[in-house]
Amino acid sequence: MSGGGILLLLTLALWAWRAVDYALIGSLAPLGILAFGAVTLGLGALAKGRWWRSAVRIWGTMMLLAGLARAGLSIALAFDPSVSIHASEAQTAFYHAATALHLVAGIWLIVRPPERPAITRI
Amino acid sequence: MRGSIVRGMGVGALATLLTMSASATGGTGSMDSFIGERATQSQRAHAALQIELALMNAGLESEQRAYRVPNIHWALDLIMPPQTGINVVAQLPASTPSERNIIIGAHYDTVPGSPGADDNASGTYAAIELAERLSELPVRNTNITFVLFDAEEDGAVGSNVFAAEWLASGRPMHSMHNIDMLGYDGNGDGVFDLDAPNGPVADAYLAAADERGIRLVRANFSSSDHVSFRKRGFTAVFLSENLTDGDFNKAYHSPKDTVIDRAYMERGIDLAAGAIEALVAP
Ligand SMILES: [Zn+2]
Fold it and tell me: For residues B64 and B85, is the Cβ–Cβ distance under 8 A?
């Protein structure tokens, strides 16, 4: 599998985990993002022509925006950690690793979208 | 996940801690033991245990209710982990079975960097002392639930969790009484602020103030834990020091919030006790 394919799967897995975690405690916001991404990628994979690349770029843009939001929050908290103790305590190694994944995957998927997966029609 | 859990602690360990706490503080819930930064998860967990022990010392059945809930805005759920915290809840049942319920609450967390003496070790101590005083009433026609809320300073998370659970339970609630900042009287005039809707609850406070020669200023506050109850349709009261009239505590939310004016706070507690006694033991 290509680097882009791995990054695509990693971001989908991360969002699937977030979607389930939040859905179980009553928030459907991450599930909404995942569903939008999954439907976009699914339609892109089924459609002919350039749609797959466009679908991947849409998901990549969403990941890049999420990464920028995460990084922006970290930078804001570095200036004033007292804004929210919850947000400050969320700044773990895992948080920063996930931010890096969002940024790298976002740029990679926009610049070099992976090949369309081979779909076997039943 | 929502719901209540009692922290797994053996009865023996709890009894030891209880004894240690009682001997260290020289009785039930010494006020000084609540002063000190209570912002991080570990600081708040420690405070929750102290409060639970103080309420148990006061003779009430109490428990820690840990919660894990979405963030205060859905967009934060896209980039942040869920909010976690612990409300401490104690029950004082009516002397004969009753469907009537009063909630007495105060937040115990602080902003980072502040020892939170006035905000809100004072309210925490007030709630515990009210538990002691009201439990001594020979007759009560109302169940009283004491709740020490977590994370008021981070979006009133604890009180929102508690109020939402109460609403979902369908149990009636006569009124909620929130005490936030009761330990500062810079100009020494002995005045307190009351934010309460007109009606029998406000009347009880006004009558109790009258009896004690206390001047009570009617005010409006749209922040603190009572708002979590009002927005769900419950009657909620907010009692505090004189936050209006230019007597605001300059140490608010700062490392300088280290002192409680004990005599003034005791007058505030006595006022609340008088009003609530009139409501539960008329
Ligand atoms: Zn406060």
Answer: no
Is the Cβ of A84 closer than 8 Å to some Cβ of chain B? yes
Q: Where are the alpha helices (DSSP H) in B111-225?
A: 122-135, 157-169, 200-212
DSSP for B190-207, written as a single string: --EEEE--TTHHHHHHHH
- The answer to whether B249 touches B241, Cβ cutoff 8 Å, is yes
What is the predicted ipTM?
A: 0.93
pLDDT score, position B33: 79
Ranges of residues in chain B whose predicted pLDDT is under 50 = 1-28
> Which residues place a Cβ less than 5 A from the ion ligand 1?
B 119-120, 180
* Tens digit of each residue's pLDDT (9 = 90 or more) over B65-123: 999 999 999 999 999 999 999 999 999 999 999 999 999 999 999 999 999 999 999 99
CB pairs under 8 A between A and B: 59
Q: How far, in Å, CA of B118 to CA of B121, rounded?
A: 6
How far does the CA of residue A122 sit from the closest CA of chain B (Å)?
36
Write the single-letter amino acid at B174.
H
Residue A90 is nearest to which of B1, B78, B80, comparing CB atoms? B80
CATH topology for B89-280 is: Aminopeptidase (3.40.630)
For residues A26 and B83, the answer to whether their CB atoms sit within 8 Å is no
Residues forming beta bridges with residue B107, ordered by sequence position: B149
Identify from A85, A92, A95 which residue to disrupt to test chain B contact, counting B C-beta atoms within 10 A and taking the largest count. Answer: A85
Mean pLDDT of chain A: 93
Query: Rounded to whole angstroms, how far apart are CA atoms B44 and B41?
Result: 5
Order of strands, edge to edge, in the sheet holding B216-218? B61-69, B83-92, B143-149, B101-107, B175-179, B236-241, B192-195, B216-218
pLDDT of residue B180: 97
Residue extents of the structural domains in chain A:
3-114
- Reduce the secondary structure of B243-272 to three states and give it as a string: CCCCCCCCCCCCCCCCCCCHHHHHHHHHHH
What band does A121 get if pLDDT is binned at 50, 70 and 90? low
- For A85, which of B2, B40, B70 is closest by C-beta distance? B40
